[in-house]
Amino acid sequence: MFLERSEGLYIGKFATLFRCPEIGHGVSTRPGGVSTGGCASLNLGNPHHDSGANIEANRARYFSSLGLTRDEAAIPGQVHGTRIAAVDGPGVIPDTDGVMTATPGVCLTVQTADCLPVFLYDPFTPAVALVHAGWRGCRDGILAAAVAGMRRTYGSDPAAFLACIGPAIGPCCYRVDEVFKEYFPARFFLEDRLDLAAVAVHQLTGSGIDPRRIEASGICTSCFSRYFFSYRRDGEGTGRMMSALILH
Ligand SMILES: [Zn+2]
Fold first, then answer.
1. Are 87 and 74 in contact (CB under 8 A)?
2. Please, where are the H alpha helices in the chain?
3. Domains and CATH numbers, the chain
4. How far, in Å, from the CA of 73 to the mean position of ligand 1?
5. Which residues are within 5 Å of ligand 1 (an ion), measured at CB?
6. CB of 247 within 8 A of CB of 100?
7. Ligand 1 centre from 173 Cα, in Å?
8. What is the CA(214)–ligand 1 centre distance, in A?
9. How many whole angstroms from 185 Cα to the centroid of ligand 1?
10. What is the Å distance from ligand 1's center to 232 Cα?
């Protein structure tokens, strides 16, 4: 992943998806917004710790930097579940942690602050999906559910997918309780720290995606405080990044 400067913001881009002009995508970063305190400055979620006006102003800047408007966004109301919703228009989708579409012009989004944003692109249908995957989602199989949902809904073949994993808390910083070793295989731990992105790569390949077509950012949200919010580092009052994915 690299950062592209656009309208005063720094937008995370995957080389894998950047090569595909038929889709647009991005991962937000912290600088360039209007929020202050723990949400400083480009907070795109967390209404419990920031004003709605700030969040809306930041979203307007973010979507503009992507060449979009807020009116195109499909925004899931995330609950750390495994439901994947097929959407064909913008709006808020309650109780959903993944969204997918084959409709051009619908901007899929998810919000994160340590969890994995996972981008899936089927270039042949074409269709896209965007998933919010934390430890609960990974434990409960949300990535397999997303691939299965695209197969079922759009006839997608995962062997053709491109997949990208955005910034999330890394194995350098993600200390977890002993009980996590019941949830994930031992090889994904470095002592008491979990490599959740490696879990995600394993699950995506297990669903039929070619590992050579998976790009993981390798960026730890907790390590890079200048650019990323981190729930583990800063607590509940921190802001939220927003990932976006759209078929043009
Ligand atoms: Zn780290």
1. yes
2. 15-18, 52-65, 135-140, 142-154, 196-206, 231-234
3. 2-247 (3.60.140.10)
4. 30
5. 170, 172-173, 220, 222-223
6. no
7. 4
8. 21
9. 21
10. 10
How far away, in angstroms, is 176 Cα from ligand 1 center?
Answer: 13
How far is ligand 1, taken at its centre, from the CA of residue 221, in Å? 7
Alpha-carbon distance of 214 to 99, in angstroms, equals 19
Edge-to-edge strands, sheet with 116-122: 84-86, 98-101, 127-133, 116-122, 162-165, 214-216
Mode of pairing for the β-strands spanning 241-247 and 107-112: antiparallel
Tens-binned pLDDT, residue by residue, of the chain (248 aa): 999 999 999 999 999 999 999 999 999 999 999 999 999 999 999 999 999 999 999 999 999 999 999 899 999 999 999 999 999 999 999 999 999 999 999 999 999 999 999 999 999 999 999 999 999 999 999 999 999 999 999 999 999 999 999 999 999 999 999 999 999 999 999 999 999 999 999 999 999 999 999 999 999 999 999 999 999 999 999 999 999 999 99
